[in-house]
Amino acid sequence: LLISPLLLTISTAKEIDQEFNAAISALRSHGYTLFPNAIATSDLSLRLHAATATNSTFTLFAPRDPQLFSLDLSSWAPHYTASLLLHVSPSRLPASYLRRLASSHHSLGGPYLKTLLPNRALHIERSRVMLNGTVLESVTVDGVRVLVPDLFLGPCIAVHGLEGILVGGYVPGTDD
């Protein structure tokens, strides 16, 4: 009877690793190559693995390579790491939920999502974009358009590709 829970734990850890690796592969295959590298070379990878190991879920908002490259070149290590933490929300949020959230709070200026960066939040709003003469509904995260919604969706992880990079805002009612 003691072997069964151990095997379940090993199996779950393996599934979590597989999901995390699949999310990283999806990012790379959609042209978001620097964000996975940044995750791997910072403590963010350890934090995300620890979160999923405790059945926590999260959403990655992936910045595009040119903006992340510029941030890397122009930032001190603590600022760069803080910027990475800002791109992670500690809940799995598919695009359909983000759209619903933005629409339901539209008259109030939109809701805020917690991030892994303490006392910082991401402002979610709906927006409209013109694409080939057609007006499309879109979602913005701190004013940055979600370019590739649901780039990856797993049981614990959601990933969205952004059109730019997040600079973040304060959570209303908190101090930094």
From TrEMBL:
- Coiled-coil segments: none
Q: What is this protein called?
A: FAS1 domain-containing protein
